[in-house]
Amino acid sequence: MIGFANRFAGRRAVVTGASGGIGRAAAVRLAAEGARVGLIGIDAAGLDRVQAEIAGAGGEALTLVADVSVEAEIEAAIDRAAAAWGGLDVVIANAGIELLGQDDRVDRLQRSVWDRLIAVNLTGQFLTSKHGARHLLAAGGGAIVCTGSNCAYLGMATNEPAYSASKGGILAMMKVMAIDYARLNIRVNMVVPGFIDTPMNAPVMNDPKELAYWSNQIPIGRAGTADECASAILFLASDEASYCIGATLVVDGGQASI
Fold it and tell me: Which of 153, 163, 181, 213 is catalytic?
């Protein structure tokens, strides 16, 4: 694991979708580099496992169970982290879902599936950013990092228009937030993962033919790792990215360059 000791010493962070995948990797890395981390998600047992992992390595984390699509829940979770540590410095809006087998070509797509994907992926990042930004403003500044997808600008996710639209919305929202907060000392940026080995992609990772197909679409020839995405997230959240405003840091093995 690549690490920078104490890069986030004294910083206070929240990470949504922290029970697994990219969120877990980012939370563990933040804690390893000195941050106190609020772990937000709907999987209480998974969050507890990550909290125990961080505590076992000498870090500090809080389990904060909340559905990012429910404003009262995400507001309460973020407020609890800020109250515990006297404010916030870093907000990682990462939680997301992909409803494979339900998301479909638009003439077949059920409205309920569309609504759920938009609610979690797009509205969830809006609500996380909204209530996180309040605390960053109170603290005098900080960083928001959104997690998107290269589906935001590539038509590669065939039969997944709702998922793709939700990620495209995050990209557009992030750009406007970056401008709105630039002179308020809050940097807003976005990590853009490609095909990453996470629980969300387990059906593909566990199918040799599907894995070979998708790996062949990537110049580097393999899926990325959650830790590789976490490295990009931590860079954008750190002072090293002090001049990055509205940036999209693509972590996709070259896929978007084809």
Answer: 163
Q: Is 153 one of the annotated active-site residues of the chain? A: no
Instruction: Judge whether 221 and 163 are in contact, CB under 8 Å.
Output: no
DSSP characters over 5-74: TTTTTT-EEEEESTTSHHHHHHHHHHHHTT-EEEEEES-HHHHHHHHHHHHHTT-EEEEEE--TTSHHHH
The mean pLDDT values, 10 residues at a time, for the chain of 258 residues are: 75 98 98 98 98 98 98 98 98 96 96 98 98 98 97 86 96 98 98 89 81 88 94 98 98 90
CB neighbours of residue 87 within 10 Å: 15
Domain extent, residue 224, equals 12-249
Is residue 198 in some structural domain? yes
CATH number of the domain that residue 23 is part of: 3.40.50.720
pTM for this entry:
0.94
Position 2 in a domain: no
Is 86 a domain residue?
yes
What is the count of structural domains for the chain?
1
Tell me, what amino acid is at 68? V
The whole-angstrom separation of Cα 183 and Cα 185 is: 5
Residue 4 belongs to a domain: no
